[in-house]
Amino acid sequence: xxxxxxxxxxxxxxxxxxxxxxxxxxxxxxxxxxxxxxxxxxxxxxxxxxxxxxxxxxxxxxxxxxxxxxxxxxxxxxxxxxxxxxxxxxxxxxxxxxxxxxxxxxxxxxxxxxxxxxxxxxxxxxxxxxxxxxxxxxxxxxxxxxxxxxxxxxxxxxxxxxxxxxxxxxxxxxxxxxxxxxxxxxxxxxxxxxxxxxxxxxxxxxxxxxxxxxxxxx
Amino acid sequence: xxxxxxxxxxxxxxxxxxxxxxxxxxxxxxxxxxxxxxxxxxxxxxxxxxxxxxxxxxxxxxxxxxxxxxxxxxxxxxxxxxxxxxxxxxxxxxxxxxxxxxxxxxxxxxxxxxxxxxxxxxxxxxxxxxxxxxxxxxxxxxxxxxxxxxxxxxxxxxxxxxxxxxxxxxxxxxxxxxxxxxxxxxxxxxxxxxxxxxxxxxxxxxxxxxxxxxxxxx
DNA sequence: GCCACCTCTTGAACATGTTCAACTGAACAT
DNA sequence: ATGTTCAGTTGAACATGTTCAAGAGGTGGC
Lengths: 218, 218
Description:
The structure is a homodimer. Chain A is an all-alpha fold. Chain A has 2 domains: 1-48, Orthogonal Bundle (Arc Repressor Mutant, subunit A); 51-217, Tetracycline Repressor, domain 2, CATH 1.10.357. Chain A is built from 11 helices and no strands. Chain A has helices at 8-23, 30-37, 41-47, 51-75, 80-96, 102-110, 124-139, 147-150, 153-170, 177-196, 200-217. Chains A and B meet through α6, α9, α10 and α11 of A and α6, α9, α10 and α11 of B. Chain A binds a DNA duplex through α3.
């Protein structure tokens, strides 16, 4: 019962994540986590401010998994479309273990006040990990992404991943088929648009978009 | 206490919506709604399956308000950009009353299983009301929107509104300034892209996009 | 009149996230 | 040794969404 217990905090963390994976969010009560970890309910709250904070730990795990899955692809080069496609599909895979309860978890994540929100301070580590992947997607692409886009594109692609995840949540198809179809279609479209962005006719639209992104970010 | 009480159901509904508006989602307990309405707690559950279903009623109200706000604009004609801009800004205004608690409500709405989700069967009336507005935005625009886009664009714009709302939720700026800036920038960008979509160079990208939309919708 | 049925209503009971006052025990100062 | 402090721990208590067995009251059949 106290074998792998380096310290109480990480023991509770590990217990919670296991239960989340096995039972989902709602079915994993704080009492169950505490009991399974062999501590009192209140103790879990001493180490984690809320259930959301435990979910946030789960997101961190998923993001680490995602990063590990795409390491080889990112190092291998390739064009923007194939890199983006691979990274987005890998994110679907990384979430795959939680597919049954995916909607529950993303629900928690989208709550603006939630610690598990991708925008929350508590998620900073997971967010930066994930955003770094898309920076690599862009910077390592050959042929190179046009200079003008290189600054903002990674963040836009990261947002696109959040969109894909949101879609995935509502996607009841087996094996997330529809979500994968979305990625298969969207990645080449992004690649094509990035290539087209060099054309003079599109210069205005591209400038508008970049200006909008910069304005809105502040 | 029983003055304006046509029937219990609508009395509970009205009471709940008032409390939601005044106190927000979390602070409005089912007990408070029932007590304020002068019925037992369980009675509220007889008429509304869950608290989410009451929130869904609130969304219906907001959507009706939105539709009323844009009636004149839609009847007046104008180009796509100005029509889209007006309708999106009006949606920000319609949600304005709930700005303080906006994040709470949208949180509820985004939960996939939730009755308040824009995609839920329970929200069908609100959804169709809202989607119809964007069909009008597109169909009533002069110069006319290219034939090829007229089918899918309304739904895409409706999704864009959901995106704007999601942004608004995370937008802490006074008067939702950043959200309005997003709309002010995005509407002309959409207008410009729709105009450009006629160009032969973009034909491929447009076809890809439309194909993607059709594939993914199923 | 009486019974069966059905809609509507009640309020106690339940499960769960969260809080909190009290307790433990180790580290440290005197 | 003794006292002090404080991070860590406990479990009962609380608030709230939700459920449910019980009943009220009306309507129609006989």
